[in-house]
Amino acid sequence: MILRLALILMLSIIPAPLAHATDLDAVEQKLESSRKQQLEQEAQAKAHKKELEAAKKDLIALAAAIQKNEGDIIALEDRIVTLTGEQQQLTVRLEADYGSIGNLILALQRMRRTPPEALIIRPGAPLQTAQTAMLLESVLPAVSRRAEALSGDLQRLAVIKQTLQEDRATVLATKADLTQKRAAMDKLLKDREKLYAAAETGRAAAARDVQRLAAEANDIRDLMARLAEQQA
Is position 32 within any domain? Predict the structure, then answer.
């Protein structure tokens, strides 16, 4: 009876190293697979981190462009206000000069239609009347030139104002475009942050698997070594 029990015990002990060796092979295969997965996850995490950093740089550049665009809009609006004020001032001056020109022309025309005899018998000094006529003749060209200059300034301001309005429309359109790009960039940044976070989670999980499997393989080797010593 004792001999039979000893035989059974020996039979149950002898296959143990073979079983542990099989377990070690399976663990080492899993370990190798986990190491490959860890390398893949590390590569993905590195790539996603690079993309995330690039997206952050693009977002910073885009924010600077938006800020510059807003500054351009403010500057254009200020210029439009200034030129509009100048235009109004010139308009008032032009209307006043045209009124003066009209009065001078009417006075000159009346003097030209007045016969010389009437000028002589008109109450007052004839010399004063003649001096007035000469003054009108000399002032009229200067006033006319002034009116032409003011009219030219008015036309120039109208062109400038129109140009500024077009520039403002362009800047506003650019602002809308940049705002749309900002929204798209924000979404892209969030998506890349999620991808990077997922890759980091996968990398950490793979690293833990490698560490666990490596420890398990070491335990099996230690057990096999102890069993080998016991059987020696």
Answer: no
- Distances from the Cα of 49 to the Cαs of 41, 62, 88, 183, 206, in angstroms? 12, 20, 58, 21, 18
- Domain CATH for 161: 1.10.287.620
Residue 117 within a domain: yes
Q: Is 57 exposed, middle or buried (0-12, 13-18, 19+ CB in 10 A)?
A: exposed
Sign of the C-alpha dihedral computed for residues 106, 108, 109 and 115 taken in this order: positive
What is the secondary structure of 159-225 as a DSSP string? HHHHHHHHHHHHHHHHHHHHHHHHHHHHHHHHHHHHHHHHHHHHHHHHHHHHHHHHHHHHHHHHHHH
Which range marks the domain in which residue 153 is found?
48-203
Residue 174 lies in a domain: yes
Number of domains in the chain: 1
Q: What is the pLDDT of residue 80?
A: 78
Residue 127 domain-assigned (yes or no): yes
Query: Which positions of the chain have pLDDT values less than 50?
Result: 1-15, 18, 117, 119-120, 125, 127
Nearest to 74 by CA among 172, 177, 174: 172
Q: Where are the alpha helices (DSSP H) in the chain?
A: 2-13, 16-113, 116-121, 126-231
The pLDDT assigned to 75 comes to 84
Task: Specify the pLDDT at position 207.
Answer: 87
Q: Residues 158, 161, 166, 167: is their CA dihedral positive or negative?
A: positive
